[in-house]
Design a protein that fits this description.
Chain B: This is Sarcosine oxidase subunit delta. Chain A is an alpha/beta fold. Chain A has twelve helices and 18 strands. Classes of the chains: A alpha/beta, B alpha+beta.
Chain lengths: 414, 109
Amino acid sequence: MKRYSAFAIAREALRGHIGWERAWRSPEPKAQYDVVIVGAGGHGLATAYYLGKNFGITNVAVLEKGWLGGGNTGRNTTIIRSNYLQDPSAAIYEKARSLYETLSQELNYNIMFSPRGVLMLAQTEHEVRGYRRTAHANSLQGVKTEFVSPDRVKELCPIISLEGPRYPVLGALWQARAGTARHDAVAWGYARACSDMGMDIIQKCEVTGIRTEGGKVSGVTTTRGDIGCGKLGIVVAGHSGVVAEMAGFRLPIESVALQALVSEPIKPCMDVVVMANTVHGYMSQSDKGEMVIGGGADGFNNYTQRGSFHHVEETVRALVETFPIISRLKMLRQWGGIVDMTGDRSPIISKTPVENCFINCGWGTGGFKAIPGSGWAMAELMAKGASPLADGFEMHRFREGRFVDESVAAGVAH
Amino acid sequence: MLILRCPNCGIDADETELAPGGEAHLRRVGPEASDDAFEGYLFHRENPRGVHFERWRHAAGCGKWFHAARCTQTLEVFGTYSAQVTDPPQDIRDAITARRPGWRWRDIE
């Protein structure tokens, strides 16, 4: 792999850009791999990357039914933060956030990580108490957050209106080292690094069945032929239930549409991420100047990657109250992704009833921020059979009543 | 925008009038049920890509519950029917069969 550098840019500029090579190979699938990962989104590629980097397992194929990073990895609002209430959540999201900090250097690929800080607005007394509690929990967990006053909120984000008619800003949970990153670049950077380690990334290859022998996984059938494997990792987000059914087990997951939208680009006016959970809206400004806006998920099962218009309307209506400046903005694009929601709004990183078959899913509305940590934990689980970061996220926790209950802690948009 | 005809009041209600109520025809397991059955009852919701049966409430209308048969892959609505039944009625099943031959949902086909 040729490294990207300022020198490489200068060299290619002088010779007509003939020396750039493809970032990753597109090989034909082999008949057998040690590990097959289903799903070449951020989580799947990160799993493959850390399998190679941390455990030296490089005879790996990553299968993708569409194109690389074309699912939720390319559809989120790119927020990275780790201010969670429960210990297992804080551990894995903080691991992810800290890996994000150096990921550009590690992958030699600019993922544009921007630690601009995230404000989670407290707009009811209940939220004030909740976020104060989260701030205390975070300090015990080693996650640096603080509860800040409305004046400080105004200082950090001058375009905010503190005296909203319905929901005045009473304070906020502030995580200075949280931020955003370029979501496509995360997938592309991992893919390039995986390909460089000799892994095969196979796009337009849909898994149609999972073969087992004596309760053990032996391979997958795909639209590009049968592929054998020693271990199988299912990392397919919204379609987890569909793939799990192929393997013969069920998941406590429902798939719903979550939408996001961006406005026309405007001059820089907001250099933090603001989340307003009471009114279901969050917003940040991209490097291009677009206001990136996300809202609540639909309440019914849906696989269409289209959401309901009225959710967009609700989100924008709520945000206009908090940010009067955006009231005349035109919206450019709107899209939806299929998110896999668990009952406690926490992920599943787990062994499954099928031996040597592992699953990483249930990230729901907040998977992008977790990509490096999720891949790290999943790789360790697949290589060694256990991972401290995945402890608590087993799929059997529902049966045993050991929830990692972020739905109570965050309610929405987490 | 999803539009469902409320079988209680006959109005074509759009999504903003409706409240989703999750999977239809759940059967509560008894006290003698196994842990597996109880886990299934509590957490393992049907999540098909295709034919699905749901409960809905006409929240900003007549306020009553009803059932809907819908496709989660295309958002096509096959029909709505009374909340007072424990299985989809035959006319709804026929409507689905006409559009999705060979469909199956739980043990219903």
